[in-house]
Please model this.
Amino acid sequence: MLLLPTTHTHTPFQLPARDVESFEPAARKKTNNHHAHASNTSRRPASTFRDLFLPSQTYTNPRKPRPTDPPPAAAALLTPPDSADLALSSPLVTVPTRLSKTRKHRGHVSAGHGRVGKHRKHPGGRGLAGGQHHHRTNFDKYHPGYFGKVGMRHFHLNKAALWRPVINVDKLVTLIPQEQREGLNAESTTVPVVDTLAAGYGKVLAKGRLPSFPVIVKARYVSRRAEEKIKANGGVVSIVA
Model:
């Protein structure tokens, strides 16, 4: 231990007064021991959790400079969407990490997949295996009618003879181009021609109302009521092969 004389005369073993004062904080710190932090909060280090992550302060890494703020247009793109919009636009709903199943399985070795199988291979069979056996309840509930046959077989089936897509009279006006529809009315001398066969329809049915102007309808099949409506509106029905 260094003993300092009370006089201020400089001797070979005496330090100046300013050096004595520089030793005093260290001496006080040594004597106060663990009570120093509790009694003097000004000695708290600056890099504590409170100093780094207070909402009013921002931590910046001196080794990595902070990037410049994005322009307003880019900032608008970076703005997170509303939760309702996100739920409608995204088919996947994410779960917070703290609530995920992975966090619940920590400390339980195999995470619910067993020590032998380890979530490998195909424990229920590959593909649709077991639809009539161990997966029968799933097939009966979600895929009824998957197994078996219904009805009779039709040998030498000619699908072309049964081709008959239908269109109703209220949709005939949609087959007329827009530029031809302008100016048409009940007194018009020009009558549009609607070729349903060229449009991909095989039969005209009578649902709905016809437009206010007469129409010439070309079709392969026309129902009785549809033909009556077209003729009552001043139009003509032409049967084509």
The longest strand covers residues 216-219.
